[in-house]
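Section 5: illustrative case.
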């Protein structure tokens, strides 16, 4: 059997049968290396290959006439009008002021705590033995006297009482603290007065919250106390959102960090039993083992009360309270 020839220089199967020009990739003679002619017309696109195709606008016919067309201007005006209307509804909605007030209360607490810790650390240089349970009483004492050298029994008795005044007078005589200069005394007293102003502002905000919550959230306030009701409204964002929340969300709202930690650990860490409603006396004063069931029962009634406040406006708190007491009696 005759083996086929390996000669590729024949006229039909050879690539090298025709002379090749230097620098040419094509075997055909006379074909230049760069066959991309920038001046040639591309039939597919209708423009020169070296030029960019013209931009063709698509979509709305108002766009084709330019951004300053009448129809486009009317569309923008309608859009901004709708946005302003929605903003107006959000600013004037029920509970908007209550939300801002409860957040102001939280900011006041944080600021007051930071400044009080600074004052306590500062005044400890002069009177480290001073120990009082009430922060407000501590600030009032520093604002009145400024240093332990200026303590006077009669004024001190009005602030802390006779027995505590005697103890503080004795402790001031044996104190190991360094004496304050006049400038240090005035500066410490000024800071204490500023903190007392924050205490007064907090009381004013709390009074507003108590009165406003009974108007905006009468049913939720009757079940969960005014501060707790206002905090739930603040965490929800609006009265409408609070009315749409299920009881399971109301039970743990405010404890999102613990909840997400439980979800990330796939059950290795315990799930939170309560969130903001822990501040309610029913939950806070209960036995630790039963707080979860009490919080779940209370959250169920708060969910119903929230729907009534947000949508119907009917005052059903007495009925809900009666049902809540029966269920709590079974839990306890």
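Designed sequence:
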């Amino acid at each position: 059997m005759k083996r086929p020839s390996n000669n590729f220089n024949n006229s039909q199967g050879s690539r090298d049968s025709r002379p090749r020009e230097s620098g040419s990739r094509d075997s055909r003679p006379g074909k230049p290396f760069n066959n991309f002619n920038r001046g040639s017309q591309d039939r597919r696109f209708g423009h020169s290959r070296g030029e960019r195709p013209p931009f063709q606008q698509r979509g709305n016919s108002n766009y084709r006439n330019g951004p300053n067309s009448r129809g486009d201007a009317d569309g923008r005006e309608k859009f901004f009008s709708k946005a302003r209307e929605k903003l107006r509804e959000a600013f004037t909605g029920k509970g908007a002021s209550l939300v801002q007030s409860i957040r102001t209360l939280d900011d006041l607490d944080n600021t007051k705590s930071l400044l009080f810790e600074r004052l306590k650390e500062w005044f400890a240089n002069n009177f480290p033995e001073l120990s009082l349970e009430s922060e407000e009483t501590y600030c009032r004492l520093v604002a009145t006297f400024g240093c332990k050298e200026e303590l006077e029994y009669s004024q001190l008795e009005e602030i802390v009482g006779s027995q505590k005044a005697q103890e503080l007078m004795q402790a001031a005589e044996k104190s190991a603290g360094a004496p304050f200069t006049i400038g240090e005394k005035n500066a410490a007293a000024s800071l204490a007065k500023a903190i007392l102003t924050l205490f007064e502002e907090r009381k004013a905000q709390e009074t507003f919250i108590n009165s406003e919550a009974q108007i905006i959230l009468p049913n939720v306030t009757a079940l969960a106390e005014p501060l707790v009701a206002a905090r739930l409204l603040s965490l929800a964002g609006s009265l409408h959102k609070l009315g749409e929340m299920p009881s399971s969300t109301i039970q743990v709202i405010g404890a999102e960090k613990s909840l997400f930690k439980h979800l990330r650990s796939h059950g290795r860490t315990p799930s939170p039993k309560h969130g903001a409603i822990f501040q309610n006396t029913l939950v806070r004063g209960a036995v630790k083992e039963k707080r979860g069931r009490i919080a779940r029962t209370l959250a169920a009634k708060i969910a119903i009360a929230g729907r009534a406040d947000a949508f119907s406006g009917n005052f059903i708190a007495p009925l809900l309270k009666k049902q809540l007491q029966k269920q709590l009696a079974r839990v306890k």
